[in-house]
Write a structure and sequence with these properties.
By secondary structure, the protein is an alpha/beta fold. It contains twelve helices and 14 strands. Strand 1 and strand 2 form a beta hairpin.
Length: 415
């Protein structure tokens, strides 16, 4: 399987000098997932832009340091072929080279010459800030653009192209059915069903494309309600935008063999996958994608403990800033036995369980408790009053402070 094995960056974004090793997943039934976590400004997106060189050269170049002395470096290593390297001095590219397999598959065939190529693997980059909109379609019309054109651009979105492809598939399915071409009908139907089934699994609701030829348009049916794309929730539009786009491209790419789409060798980059998603969908999205594409290597940046704890056999790379520079603080393998609370505490460094206001008030209680245990018994009434006040917020707070008061009472009685 063609995959990325290592990233080296120097004087790039918030990084001074860092090396990231990407260990291969030994579970052949699940995609290899590399998760990048960290606070805002620690360089999660910068890592993804570096990994997608040379396609996203301009994004990466913006993050290279404008140094009077020294050089900015991005070096991406692969399981096959030479590394992709970009060096910059004073914000300008000094040297740039790309891996021959990436160059052949994605740089050389970004136009209609792709028809003369047969692809061995796919690479796709998406941001969850993408969207999808309703678009007018002028009948069935063959897509002539290369299926890898724009595939590595995180932000690019083309609703018309995806909807045109869906309309084409639905039309071909209906035509094959009319002419009793059962095998052709089923193969065509499977292409759009791959998207429908993926979305259905994530949102846990019935989902399908609805095609009308008068007027000529594509809508969706969600939970038995037909709607235009424009009125869908932002989270659903975001998921549909990138999953639909990727599966459309995979269907259109000419491949060297007849391997099923789900078993293709892919490298997928997802920037802030949790944006717009309800926690329930955050728990589902990566879990579903990891199972759908077992021969994929997936790089994900996320702020969500629900995403991080949703899958096993994934690697978490935690970034932290030290003395003004980001660095890799820790890399570890996820464990499905870890709770969301543990992920919040250990991976995202959040120790509190309540709101910031309530945490401050509870801290006041513990200060008073400490003063009482030090012999200032005049504070006992104040501790009781504060406990009664705070206990009104929730049963959890009530249970916590009731326990603390009982422990306090026991401690005082033993004095």
């Amino acid at each position: 399987m063609f995959r990325i094995t290592k990233l080296i960056v120097k004087n790039y974004g918030p990084f001074k000098d860092s090396i990231f090793d990407f260990t291969e997943n030994n579970n052949t039934k699940l995609a290899e997932v590399q998760m990048i976590t960290g606070e805002n400004g620690t360089g999660k997106s910068s890592i993804l832009y570096a990994l997608t060189l040379p396609e996203n050269q301009q994004f990466a170049l913006q993050r290279c340091h404008d140094l009077k002395e020294g050089t900015s470096l991005i070096e991406v290593h692969y399981s096959k072929g030479q590394p992709t390297i970009m060096t910059c001095i004073k914000g300008r590219i000094k040297y740039n080279s790309s891996n021959e397999y990436v160059r052949k598959e994605f740089l050389q065939f970004r136009n209609e010459t792709y028809r003369h190529n047969q692809f061995e693997f796919g690479m796709f980059s998406y941001s969850s800030y993408r969207n999808i909109h309703s678009a007018r379609i002028q009948g069935t019309q063959e897509l002539n653009t290369s299926p890898v054109e724009g595939a590595m651009n995180f932000q690019e979105e083309d609703s018309r192209q995806l909807l045109q492809w869906v309309a084409n598939m639905k039309s071909r399915e209906a035509n094959a059915h009319y002419h009793d071409q059962i095998e052709k009908r089923d193969q065509t139907k499977a292409a759009t069903e791959r998207i429908e089934n993926a979305i259905k699994a994530i949102i846990e609701k019935p989902f399908e494309f609805v095609f009308n030829d008068d007027p000529f348009e594509v809508n969706v049916k969600v939970d038995d309600q037909i709607s235009s794309f424009d009125v869908l929730p932002d989270g659903l539009k975001s998921i549909l935008s990138w999953i639909g786009d990727m599966l459309m491209r995979l269907d259109r790419m000419p491949w060297k063999n007849n391997t099923q789409v789900g078993n293709r060798n892919l490298i997928l980059f997802l920037d802030e996958i949790d944006v717009h998603l309800h926690p329930k969908w955050q728990r589902q999205v990566l879990y579903i994608v990891q199972q759908l594409f077992p021969n994929a290597q997936i790089f994900v940046s996320t702020h969500s403990p629900f995403v991080v704890s949703s899958i096993g056999d994934a690697f978490i790379h935690e970034l932290k800033k030290v003395n003004g520079y980001s660095r890799l603080f820790e890399s570890e393998l996820t464990n499905l036995g870890n709770s969301y609370q543990r992920m919040i505490n250990e991976v995202f460094s959040i120790d509190s369980e309540f709101s910031p206001f309530l945490e401050k008030e509870i801290e006041k209680f513990y200060i008073i408790k400490s003063e009482i245990l030090s012999g200032d018994y005049s504070k006992i009434q104040k501790a009781n009053q504060l406990a009664v006040k705070l206990s009104k917020y929730s049963e959890e707070v009530h249970a916590l402070l009731s326990f603390e008061l009982k422990q306090l009472e026991k401690a005082i009685s033993n004095v």
